[in-house]
Write a sequence for this structure.
């Protein structure tokens, strides 16, 4: 802003431009004004008119005003920096200067346009045609910046007044956004401010220089890293080198302002010590080591240089490089005082109230004496507080804590009186032997013994109350300012000493003499060579923490696999019985009738061909048109052949997969009927939560997801099996995975035959994928189907609407709004895929009349995209059915099996109209269907890898799907197909085949399923599939799984959490984490209920605009819990009711949907069944076990932490505005922040992707800096945590889905989110903004314990400000706290394995009831966090 320079010379002053009004080259005559010529006058007037944009302006011009103001303030003459802006014109900047009368220094300030934007190149000043115009505009800018608080603008020309007003508006807005910047840009005395800033900088430099001089004067101390005189290092304290960033630095760095506003977390000292002790007792350090060959890798060498640049000691760095996370290893094992200054704990890093400097002198002296053992002052103060300020007891506790797993006490305990006698006797003996070395400091409590006098090294011992049954307090130090023994050496001495005491069984007898002798023999050696921070003995001891659990895991996993996939062999008697039953059944009239019906199907003609193909090929592809009977007949052809020709009644299994449960159930029941058996015997089905099979079952229908789970545990289940994969054309993720797995299993499993079946598929794709593929095509029914497109339909039904509504269809206005218009098939409304329900009803009525005239009692299927559309259409059809001639039935996957079965029944004298999603397209067959009405729309889940969001998007279907829907109408007789889209749209806009699901959904579940099968390179494995998923999506899946803790961030292996989640057939990892965390932390029932609520994809209330405010008012009672826990509380009240009438009343009073609640309860039962099946909870619950599994069910903090762990990375940082205060009678108090001023920030996926690309490809340019780590989001108005201090704009109201205007405009006074630093959300929705749904507030500590990977900020120049969560979220804390949290996560993973490793199928689960110290500590942390 300001610059120094020399005073302007006289020549330069003369060259300054002449004041306005004098022509160039003319001089003033002293005392007399020179007359101007007429030409000069007219020229001057023209210039004035050009500057002022007015021919009548007679006042002073801006340059003159600025010149006069500078003269009054005794500033130098104004100079201008002129610049030409291309062809646009000239821009100028006024340069003000001031000469200091004492120093003769010249201060200069460039008065640039403060509104100028460098990116757009625009500002308040526009380029001018001439330099004169540009100079005056620059003068106006300068005038405003130094005189904005005056009325000077009244003296300016009109066009310059406008510039003044623009600058004034900018200054006012800047005062709100950035007051500091505004005050700096607009300053009435800028030179005074500049001088003061320079004085402050000079004073700061003087203070730093004085501090350095003072440090040099301090007495130097000799650091005893060796007892050799050559190696003793004199220094005040450890000298720190300036930290320089190496070539490859950390991938994330945040500015100081980000750290100032970052969330803060700290532990109380007692809790921190408790955490550290637990880690030392349970951690397995050997599991954290890397291969020896990797230590010398280039990456490790870069890491080594970075650690050395941070001033860690070279021997410590060499040791740390053997571990996966060297920095964490160093921070954990080094005492605080031996850490580089960069990692020291500052006052601002602690929230502990205890201020040591304010304590009494006696206590401060005790703390100073205890810190000689190598601990921090905070640790010493905490130990004293826990021991009621007893210094000796505190010293004993601190000594025992050095190696917590060693024995530190023996029974029987010595009484205090006897202890004192033993202590005095031992002291007398030592004084008699070493009179000059022993010095008693406090009778009966403490004395010292010289060990190495030359270097002032002494042994100091404290008597504990039960000594010698308990360890005394032991300190080995110099106790001298001139000599200092490093703390890590002190700690190493005590570690070895305590190990010696334990190995020699010295506890219980006089110890000090033995301690003295041991130190005489070993102290010098330890000082010369302290050895590694983690000794070999400690490393071996840590391995024992994991050996037993690892062995148990291996055994239990084998048992689980054997049990899950065990199939009992039938006895000879059972086989004979089955053969006899089959022989008797095939000759019954009922079977023969069914057989005749089967023979009429097109598939029957291909029976021999199909059987021969399966016999002669390992893989067979059977395609069949709609109605050919392939799904019901092929399995029977194969079974009949096995039974008739091979006499096989038990050896070979027939398994048929289906993409949906309704088709698996429906086909199993249909085939059972055709074979005249009860479903569950010869023919059965397996879907999630239901296994309707027996030892006699030969044909098993199952969903593709069930087969994936079977293959993932034991592929030998397929031995001697014929596996049929139906509907492969749908290309679901599970289907594609099964196809890849089966290709890899070909030739490896005895007796495995593979049959692929599809309605419409590209045969060449499968021929290229499977070598030697056998193919067969089954023709469909020959019943003709007549097609009508929208072009014909509009004319047939004479569809017309009022003109005032036609704007929605055509996109333009109509003059006569009372006129009726007939919209075209290619109008805007129909082209965009919107559905007119009046038209749908008209077509249904037309079809009904046409069929009635022909005496046709067939049914009608209407295809709609989703459940909401189905409900609306059903409601309108029922309203318009005045004569009650139709039975309108919805059909979608969310219906119960009982409701779904209604569509297969016949209704005498009434027309059956089935309104369905694409579930009726291929999965089921409604045999009496003769007409279809196709809107051409479907809802599919689309995944956006750029922002990691999944959206249920509605779009036009493919031509193949249109063909499938059409085929539903011609199964049993002639049919008709009405298509509510134009022929042009069908031919030009619809794609040929649907996009494979593997290309449009998140791949986390697929990735972890493949990983759990032992496949290391998942990307390579999936690349061999029919349609390899996009590499970017796979990389995103891998990164996401590491982020949520299911993959190890160092070697990409499955964590224990990931291993157990892969065993559970849940929808995704979110539900799996929710269920496992709920069991582990004792909120089992609530967690299962939460997972059940999430599984229905919506809230369980009535979808009625009229009751939304009432629902929100109900939930508002539990606002502190958040959306999901509030809903859970209401449903828990419902579950406590027993009789039906009370439940129905509760549903009505709380506006709950009966169907949704029913679905939730059904899913809840399934989750219990799944968890019992894998042994995570006992099958037979007992009171004690149930209590333990739900011990924290009323602990809201634990519930929020569980949701945090399940939902991460769906977390938002809550940014509160600057605090505001109001005056009261008792003083100023802080006001609650306004809801609209609170901002929410979530992870920016593009930023994370850019970092990942830089990590894998170092040649990429550093473009990540162009992206911000977080992006802004907003709480959805449907949340009970949503608060608004005003009405939203109309655009938001128009684009928000499921939110009515009344709800939006309502103001909710509570701002619960302001009390929490973070919120987690279940889903996000992009409309006019990015909205977050199903919000739950949470704490910083919960986020750190259950969130993403933690890294340390090491890019600062002076001090590490904290840790970074998942590369995007800075958290301010002491670095050692970050290490403890990281290691606690490792222990949590081990605790999950310990709790869930032994599946229990019989009764009680002892592992569940057994308390776990790590989990208890985690629960305590969550509760206090």
């Amino acid at each position: 802003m300001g610059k120094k320079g020399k005073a302007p010379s006289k020549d330069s002053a003369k060259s300054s431009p002449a004041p306005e009004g004098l022509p160039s080259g003319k001089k003033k005559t002293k005392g007399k004004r020179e007359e101007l010529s007429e030409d000069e006058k007219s020229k001057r007037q023209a210039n004035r008119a050009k500057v002022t944009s007015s021919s009548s302006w007679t006042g002073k011009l801006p340059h003159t005003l600025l010149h006069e103001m500078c003269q009054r303030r005794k500033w130098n003459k104004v100079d201008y920096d002129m610049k030409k802006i291309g062809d646009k014109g000239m821009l100028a900047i006024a340069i003000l200067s001031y000469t200091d009368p004492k120093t003769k220094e010249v201060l200069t300030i460039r008065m640039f346009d403060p509104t100028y934007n460098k990116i757009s190149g625009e500002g308040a000043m526009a380029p001018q045609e001439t330099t004169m115009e540009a100079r005056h505009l620059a003068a106006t800018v300068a005038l405003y910046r130094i005189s904005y608080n005056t009325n000077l603008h009244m003296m300016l020309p009109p066009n310059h007044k406008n510039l003044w007003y623009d600058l004034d508006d900018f200054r006012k807005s800047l005062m709100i956004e950035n007051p500091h910047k505004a005050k700096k840009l607009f300053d009435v005395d800028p030179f005074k401010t500049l001088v003061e800033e320079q004085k402050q900088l000079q004073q700061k430099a003087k203070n730093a220089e004085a501090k350095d001089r003072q440090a040099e004067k301090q007495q130097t101390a000799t650091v005893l890293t060796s007892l050799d005189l050559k190696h003793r290092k004199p220094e005040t304290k450890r000298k720190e080198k300036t930290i320089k960033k190496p070539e490859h630095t950390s991938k994330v760095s945040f500015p100081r302002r980000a750290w100032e506003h970052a969330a803060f977390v700290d532990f109380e000292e007692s809790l921190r010590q408790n955490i550290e002790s637990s880690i030392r007792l349970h951690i397995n350090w050997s599991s954290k080591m890397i291969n020896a060959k990797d230590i010398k890798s280039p990456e490790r060498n870069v890491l080594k240089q970075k650690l050395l640049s941070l001033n860690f000691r070279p021997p410590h760095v060499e040791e740390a490089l053997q571990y996966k996370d060297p920095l964490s290893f160093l921070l954990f094992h080094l005492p605080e005082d031996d850490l580089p200054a960069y990692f020291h704990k500052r006052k601002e890093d602690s929230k502990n109230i205890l201020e040591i400097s304010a304590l009494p002198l006696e206590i401060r002296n005790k703390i100073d004496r205890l810190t000689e053992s190598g601990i921090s002052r905070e640790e010493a103060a905490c130990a004293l507080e826990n021991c009621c300020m007893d210094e000796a007891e505190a010293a004993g506790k601190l000594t025992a804590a050095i190696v917590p797993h060693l024995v530190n006490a023996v029974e029987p305990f010595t009484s205090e009186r006897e202890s004192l006698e033993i202590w005095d006797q031992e002291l007398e003996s030592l004084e008699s032997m070493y009179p000059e070395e022993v010095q008693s400091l406090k009778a009966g409590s403490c004395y010292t013994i010289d060990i190495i006098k030359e270097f002032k090294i002494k042994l100091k011992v404290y008597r504990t109350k039960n000594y010698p049954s308990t360890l005394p307090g032991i300190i080995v130090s110099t106790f001298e300012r001139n000599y200092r023994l490093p703390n890590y050496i002190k700690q190493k001495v005590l570690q070895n000493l305590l190990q010696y005491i334990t190995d020699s069984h010295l506890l219980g007898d006089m110890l000090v003499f033995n301690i003295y002798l041991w130190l005489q023999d070993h102290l010098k050696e330890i000082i010369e060579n302290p050895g590694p921070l983690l000794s070999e003995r400690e490393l071996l001891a840590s391995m024992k923490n994991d050996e037993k659990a690892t062995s148990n895991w291996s055994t239990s996993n084998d048992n689980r696999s054997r049990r899950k996939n065990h199939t009992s062999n039938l006895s000879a008697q059972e086989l004979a019985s089955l053969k006899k039953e089959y022989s008797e059944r095939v000759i019954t009239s009922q079977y023969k009738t069914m057989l005749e019906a089967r023979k009429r199907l097109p598939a029957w003609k291909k029976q021999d061909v199909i059987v021969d193909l399966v016999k002669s090929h390992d893989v067979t592809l059977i395609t069949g048109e709609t109605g050919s009977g392939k799904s019901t007949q092929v399995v029977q052809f194969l079974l009949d052949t096995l039974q008739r020709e091979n006499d096989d009644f038990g050896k070979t299994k027939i398994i048929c997969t289906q993409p949906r449960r309704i088709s698996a159930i429906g086909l199993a029941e249909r085939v059972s009927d055709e074979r005249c058996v009860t479903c569950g015997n010869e023919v059965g089905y397996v879907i999630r939560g239901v296994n309707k099979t027996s030892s006699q079952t030969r044909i098993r229908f199952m969903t593709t997801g069930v087969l994936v789970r079977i293959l993932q545990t034991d592929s030998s289940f397929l031995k001697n099996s014929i596996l049929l994969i139906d509907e492969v054309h749908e290309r679901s993720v599970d289907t594609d995975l099964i196809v890849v797995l089966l290709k890899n299993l070909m030739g490896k499993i005895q007796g495995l035959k593979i049959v692929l079946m599809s309605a419409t598929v590209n045969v060449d794709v499968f021929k290229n994928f499977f070598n030697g593929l056998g193919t067969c095509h089954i023709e469909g029914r020959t019943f003709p189907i007549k097609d009508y497109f929208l072009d014909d339909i509009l004319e047939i039904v004479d569809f017309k609407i009022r003109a005032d509504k036609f704007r929605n269809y055509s996109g333009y206005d109509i003059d006569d709004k009372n006129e009726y218009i007939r919209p075209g098939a290619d109008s805007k409304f129909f082209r965009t895929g919107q559905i007119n329900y009046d038209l749908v009803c008209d077509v249904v009525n037309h079809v009904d009349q046409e069929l009635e005239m022909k005496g046709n009692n067939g049914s009608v299927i209407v295809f709609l995209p989703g459940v909401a559309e189905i409900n609306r259409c059903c409601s309108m059809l029922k309203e318009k059915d005045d004569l009650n001639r139709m039975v309108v039935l919805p059909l979608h996957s969310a219906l119960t099996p009982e409701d779904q079965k209604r569509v297969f029944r016949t209704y005498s004298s009434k027309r059956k109209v089935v309104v369905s999603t694409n579930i009726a397209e291929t999965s089921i067959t409604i045999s009496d269907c003769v007409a279809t009405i196709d809107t051409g729309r479907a809802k599919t889940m689309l995944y956006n890898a750029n922002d990691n969001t999944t959206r249920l998007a509605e779009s036009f279907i493919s031509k193949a799907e249109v063909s499938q829907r059409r085929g539903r109408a011609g199964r049993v007789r002639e049919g008709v197909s009405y298509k509510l889209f134009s022929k042009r749209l069908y031919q030009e806009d619809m794609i040929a085949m649907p996009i494979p699901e593997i290309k449009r959904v998140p791949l986390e579940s697929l990735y972890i399923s493949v990983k759990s099968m032992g496949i290391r390179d998942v990307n390579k494995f999936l690349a061999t599939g029919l349609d390899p998923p996009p590499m970017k999506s796979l990389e995103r899946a891998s990164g996401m799984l590491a982020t949520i803790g299911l993959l190890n961030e160092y070697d990409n292996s499955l964590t224990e959490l990931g291993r157990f989640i892969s065993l559970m057939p849940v929808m995704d990892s979110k539900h799996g984490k929710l269920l496992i965390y709920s069991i582990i932390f004792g909120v089992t029932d609530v967690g299962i209920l939460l997972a059940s609520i999430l599984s229905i994809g919506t809230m369980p209330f009535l979808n009625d605009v009229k009751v939304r405010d009432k629902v929100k008012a109900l939930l508002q009672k539990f606002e502190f819990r958040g959306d999901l826990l509030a809903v859970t509380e209401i449903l828990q009240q419902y579950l406590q009711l027993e009789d039906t009438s009370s439940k129905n009343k509760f549903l009505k009073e709380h506006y709950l949907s009966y169907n949704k609640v029913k679905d939730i309860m059904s899913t809840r039962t399934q989750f219990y069944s799944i968890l019992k099946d894998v042994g995570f909870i006992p099958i037979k619950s007992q009171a004690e076990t149930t209590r333990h599994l739900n011990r924290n069910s009323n602990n809201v903090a634990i519930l929020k932490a569980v949701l945090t762990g399940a939902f991460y990375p769906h977390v938002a940082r809550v940014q509160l505005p600057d605090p505001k205060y109001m005056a009261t009678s008792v003083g100023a108090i802080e006001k609650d922040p306004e809801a609209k001023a609170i901002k929410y920030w979530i992870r920016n996926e593009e930023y994370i992707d850019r970092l990942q690309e830089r990590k894998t490809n170092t040649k990429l340019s550093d473009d990540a800096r162009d992206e911000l780590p977080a992006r802004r989001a907003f709480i959805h108005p449907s949340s009970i945590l949503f608060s608004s201090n005003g009405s939203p704009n109309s655009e938001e109201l128009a684009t928000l889905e499921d939110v009515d205007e009344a709800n939006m405009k309502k103001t909710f006074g509570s701002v619960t989110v302001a009390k929490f630093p973070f919120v987690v959300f279940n889903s996000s929705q992009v409309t006019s903004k990015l909205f977050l749904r199903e919000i739950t507030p949470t704490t910083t500590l919960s986020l750190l314990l259950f969130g993403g990977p933690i890294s340390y900020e090491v890019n600062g120049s002076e001090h590490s400000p904290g840790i970074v969560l998942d590369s995007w979220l800075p958290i301010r804390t002491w670095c050692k706290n970050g290490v403890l949290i990281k290691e606690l996560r490792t222990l949590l993973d081990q605790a999950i394995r310990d709790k869930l490793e032994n599946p229990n199928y019989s009764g009680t689960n002892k592992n569940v009831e057994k308390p776990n110290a790590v989990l208890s500590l985690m629960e305590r942390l969550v509760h206090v966090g």
